## 1
Amino acid sequence: MHVISAGATMKSFVQPGYKQTEVGVIPEDWDSKVIDEVGFVTSGKRLPLGNSLSDHETSHPYIRVTDMRPGTVSLSDIKYVPDHVYPSIKRYRIFLDDIFISVAGTLGIVGKIPAELDGANLTENADRITSITCSRDYLLHVLMSPLIQNTIESLQTVGAQPKLALTRIRKFAIPLPPTKAEQEAIAEALSDTDALIESLEQLITKKRRLKQGAMQELLSPRDGWIEKQLGNTATLKARIGWQGLTTAEYLETGDYYLVTGTDFKGGYIDWDHCPCVEESRYKQDKNIQLKPHDVLVTKDGTIGKVALVDHLNKPATLNSGVFVIRPIDGAFHPDFFYYLLCSSIFSEFLAQLSAGSTINHLYQKDFVTFNYRIPPTIEEQKSIASTLSDMDAEITTLETKLGKTRQLKQGMMHNLLTGRIRLI
């Protein structure tokens, strides 16, 4: 296999060897066709009134939109059609060579079914594309691409229940390479990238579970651990209300960050999307000027979200919805305390505070009563925090790789599905 590049993008003219079509600029030997020309689109079927689905297999599985995932179907929540209903809806089935597309609720979820669901009945909120004459997997990737997904997004009616008409789907225009071999080569390249993305997602999920297990093991109190109370061992500071900071003062750029609860991401601060404030607002309160290793907790809205200030690119302060917690006279290692707050020990404390009611504010008078137990030495606390921090760093590295792989796939889709790069 070798790669032929189309070279520079078209600006004011169509490059030799390419043509302008309804789907954009594509190679001269490619076609622009509508779905009706490469397959047959038909709808699913609503269950007859008065018939419920079963959790246990009785006849045939029934695929709902809630079971659909981009590219495939989740097997975990599949329901089954009762025996007495199946004969009346058995014509509305989907098979391994078909493609489904959701047409109500969440529009445009596209995929193929796993072997376990071959011949499953399909909900009326999804359509099937059957009798596909081009490469099924190539068509699947085109339907999942921005070319079609952006079209679907533009068809949604604001303020109404989203619905995608079967006639619309039939007229979706797609770029089509001249041979199945080229179509399948494109599909294979994109599927390989999908497989890498899926493997990274699964690995991240596994690493997160391992970290949760490690936190349970490392943070559970042992003999010799010391019990302390937050009010006696730490200062809690937040922007006080009389300072009157409003969202109108939030800036997109500036020399001073303003950290809000919405900037917490994965236990740290998402500095790339953090708003800024004027210098006067930063200097207004020294108590909330952030430092490395500060522990932050949200006290308004979604209470009890936790973040650690692991680094500072420039000076930062807080809005009124966040506490900053600092140890008094080295009462605890802040990184260890951060992980303690990320654990079930703190979530159980918050649950006791709510006592069955919905609380939307964490009062300092309540927070200071938080009792916790820690290792007697700072060295042991640092060791535990370091172990968990290393696990966080590994997860962050994988998440960065996942993000880059997703960006790579977007670039591949653009180049491969327009013929800018050809695999022949």
Note: The chain has three domains: 1-15+178-218+378-424, 31-176, 226-374.
## 2
Amino acid sequence: MLEGYDIIYFAPNTWEGLWRTRHQFMSMFAQKNRVLFVEGRTSLHKVVDQFRQGTLRPSDLRRPVVQEVISNLFVFRYPLWAPISGHFPLRQITAGIRRWYLRHVLQKLGFSRPIVWLHRPSMVDLINDIPSPRLLLYHVVDEYAAYGSVTPEKRRRIETQEREMAARVDGVIVVSKHLYESKRQLNPNTFLIPNGANYQAYSAALSDPRVPESLQSIPRPRLGYAGLISGNIDLEMLRNLALEHPEWSLILVGDVRVSKQMQAWEALLAQPNVYYLGQVEGAQVPHYVKGFDVGLMPYVLNRQVRNSCPLKLYDYLAAGIPIASVNVPAVREFGQYIHLARRPTDFVQAVQEALADNSPERFRARRELAAQHSWEARIEQVSETIETLLASKGSQATDGEA
């Protein structure tokens, strides 16, 4: 692992909540480096809406700007009273305030020549906020222009920002082969490092024979999905699954964001064999997943999903449970361990095959595969990539001086 560096990660949202790739990487890097996790900027429109809805209190405006959440890992929060505004001159004034606060914190912490990670194309302007970065990285975990809520005009803006971002950074790290093929055209220093498995957390959960109380009363077989429930989940396919097999229990765990699919979501929940258990803390997720008889990956095969590397895949493998999935490209290389549905109409058959794939030998095989793709293995790949880029950049600087 890298050691002795200062690292800044510009994230799209907060440190709290469901842990994602960035949380895994930065918490591990903090073991031997100092890390500043910069939470996402908010807009004036969102701040006003939160005040109106009562979800934002006046005391929130006085919250700490920086806080050490674990040893050597600091979380920086932009002051809410300096949000992004689209109007001149307020936009320039608040941007200057945010830049001053960030640089003040960097100076206070003694950060020098940091390795900087940027998560979204819209963050390209933040490059100018960091004095003398050692290395600039663009971390791509999704095809951002393919999000369902993106309008054609916004898509063009994202694509323009991404071209500029890729041109300015020293390297691009992507999580899927599809993303690798598209992003390496923008920057030749593009590296494929997929998501990983929290193997140790699942090992600890499996050593405890108990499951959460909310699972205990649900009859088996239990078909489970744990994660974000959004427009990328095929709710109609799940409803058909529940209707065709009323003897199966369908369990959903996670945050729900289906405002445009509310009717389909309500129709799914109306089935007597469907159980929504709400959102749970990240540390508790392995205890739920180990109680599933089959892990479901019931995605809509849109452009975003085709470019993704689902964390669910590695979670289910680490739990040792059989997996039924739609035909996501990133899943195909694990074909002998996954039961794939080539079409949505084949998903019931994939689940049936997964239910039969429950021998102790197959359980161990899935766990062994997860161990090979652990976050510990991924952090070594990332460290090697960064060392390669640093060496290349140092070589170029020496050549320039010559």
Note: The two ends are 32 Å apart (CA to CA).
## 3
Amino acid sequence: MYNIAIVAGGNSGEYEISMKSGKQVELNMDMTRFRPYLIEIRGTKWNYKLESKSFPVDKNDFSLTIGKRKIRFDAVFNAIHGTPGEDGKLQGYFDMLVIPYTSCGLTTSALSFNKSFCKSVVSGYGVDIARSVHLLKGVKGAEEAVLKNLSLPVFVKPNNGGSSVGMSKVNHKKELKAALAKAFNEDDEILAEEFIKGRELTCGVIRTKGKIIAFPVTEIISKKEFFDYEAKYQPGMADEVVPADIPARISEKCREISVDLFMRLNCKGIVRFDYIFDGKKFFFLEVNTVPGITSASIVPKMAKAYGWTYSDLITNLLNEIL
């Protein structure tokens, strides 16, 4: 029986979603093989809750003491969306303790979490990206830089973050100032990116049993102007078509690009690649190295379309690192 720490929570606007992901993992873990411990991370407070009691994690060796019993972990299931679980910080900590974990390593996590840096690297691999401007907090001329280099409409979003927290679509010049302030409220770096008209497609990729598997491509059809936080997590606000209603050759091309990026970026665990398809080209949006895995999330739906249960997904992720 393996002791598995499920880390969830984190220090970003994705805290609540992360806790839901962690709870879902706990509920669906194969109890005949794994003993799960859901650990809530929030700032410097790392705690495991058992009934009404809370037990702090010993950060010296990432262990728990419950009564006279000291619990060490065989592996970590990373369910933290955002910092410190998706940006490389926890990965570095677990690397030093030599504890395996289900997500990408330190370098890949840090690179992919910075949208601007990641887009530059992906572009170097020959994948199309939208034109964008990388802006830093406190540097004057943000509005002018956007209007000078990009054509409206544009998306303005935190450069380091997910779940569309702090994101806005700017259709008119007068909306830009408020959009920049909203994004800067979430991050010290933001990205303004030109709007590309097309279909939003996403593909999950996982390595298991020595093979890299691309799940069926999914189309996201938001009932709002774009796929924002509400559309992602409010029931009925978006349709997620799995598999996407697209020609087989288009689906295969999307999966091919995703597998290639998975290998080139040295990804691990389950990763989701997001694109806009304009009818001719795939424009890379971002890579989610710790994608949502709540009951409403896209990845479990992709896995189901592939023929896996939620429990199969969890087991395959853990088998790969144990």
Note: The radius of gyration is 20 Å.
## 4
Amino acid sequence: MPESGQLITLSRAARLIGVVRGELQKKIQQGSLRAFDGMVTVDDLLAAYPRAQLEDDTEQRRVALIKEKAFGKRIFERAMPDIETLATRVTELSKELALSQLQLTQFKTLLDRLGDQLVDIGKQPEADMKGAVNGVVSWLGEAVSAALVPDALNPLAVRDNLLRVAAAHVTVLPSGHDFFIDGPDTLLEGALRSGVPLNYGCSGGNCGLCKAKVLSGQVKKTRHHDFVLSEADKAQGYVLLCSNTAVTDVEVEAQVAGGVQDIPFQEIAATVKSHNLINPEMLLLHLQTPRSSRLRFLAGQYVNLRLAKSLTADLPIASCPCDDRNILFHVRRMPGNLFSDYVFDRLKAGEVVEIAGPEGDFILQERAARPFYFFALDTGFAPIKSLLEHAMSLEPDEGIHLYWIGSGEESIYLPNVPRAWADALDNFHYTKLVVGQDLAQLTALREEALLKLLQGIFSAHPEIREGDIYIAGPEAASRLTESLFLDLGMPKTRVFLSYRSF
């Protein structure tokens, strides 16, 4: 255990400094930062980052960049919690401060008594012992004075206390996931924004599927719910995650989806929020679900859409599970295809679209401590975009690499999105490549051109072999890409494929 200094988790330490957890873990492995059961002290953290006290806005600026440029969900401001929650957090911190002061006073009293006893020992006739004891007494006096009146406060300790007022830290057991509650978010909203797939249903307080047990800390009900918790549940500390926020740092016992088998099949009547042309050949379809019936899915999955009663298509979801009410799709113009023709030429805002799903196992292997490599071929960017947004919300320790390979320039139909991610995130790397051949209709010459391009990527970056590969796009081109990496010796358990693009 450390001799002094407040212990904090790596997640909180990374947030204070403004780095990813992987950087801290590397320092621990290199021996330049001490760790105690996965935690570090603010004193050691400041020693490892001596300029941290001069960069108080690092964390805020990083969060703003990620939220505004990368996700584009909303203009993100560091909203403070409501006044009641804020007052409670300040009160809790005040209690801790008062306790620390009491313990410090008791410590001084103990040392004073110890000094008196040593003085008594010093009255013994042995001259040598008397000199030694006097030295101990002198040292004790100086140590107590230094402890009671420190030269300077650790700036990270001060900032950590402020962070605990503005954002509560939530740990989910037994999975070990953790996240922060920013502003007025509920526990469920905070988890989803951080990529933690908690179990839930309606997210509106009606079904009770997000019921969880509070193991420690204090929560507060912020939204009404119709689901009735029994008195026995209340006595054991159960709450609805969709209707409560964290007042202090808390630990909750809750179920987290471990895979596609934990996501229920759903049928939801959504409405068209908007449908806008990205370019003449691509359209962004934005569907919105009812507040009481949101779509629960994992990043990378697809759904079946039905409109005008009979027109259907299986489409990959192009948005993050963190916003389960607003679902995005990328639709390609396909003359003669009834679904495509209707979406481009006849679809109206407010029209009802039936969603059935989700399906598919093209999901992120988030527990793997390896770099992510994403290969989006033409419209394969849709499911890759969903995976990327989920990966970024996890703040992975290793790097994120995106290669968007287009048949032509127009096939890179959202060029500003990955460029914004690269500007916002230190560990995100984006490469745009144009093969100059139609990837949806491969011939022998086109296969040769694609293979040459892929081999060039691997020759320049052989470290790709150490990561996980995610490939999405037209079937033939995607399978060819998969075969290349398998032929290079990568195990199939680390090469993931989706060719369901519309």
Note: The first strand starts at residue 7 and ends at 9.
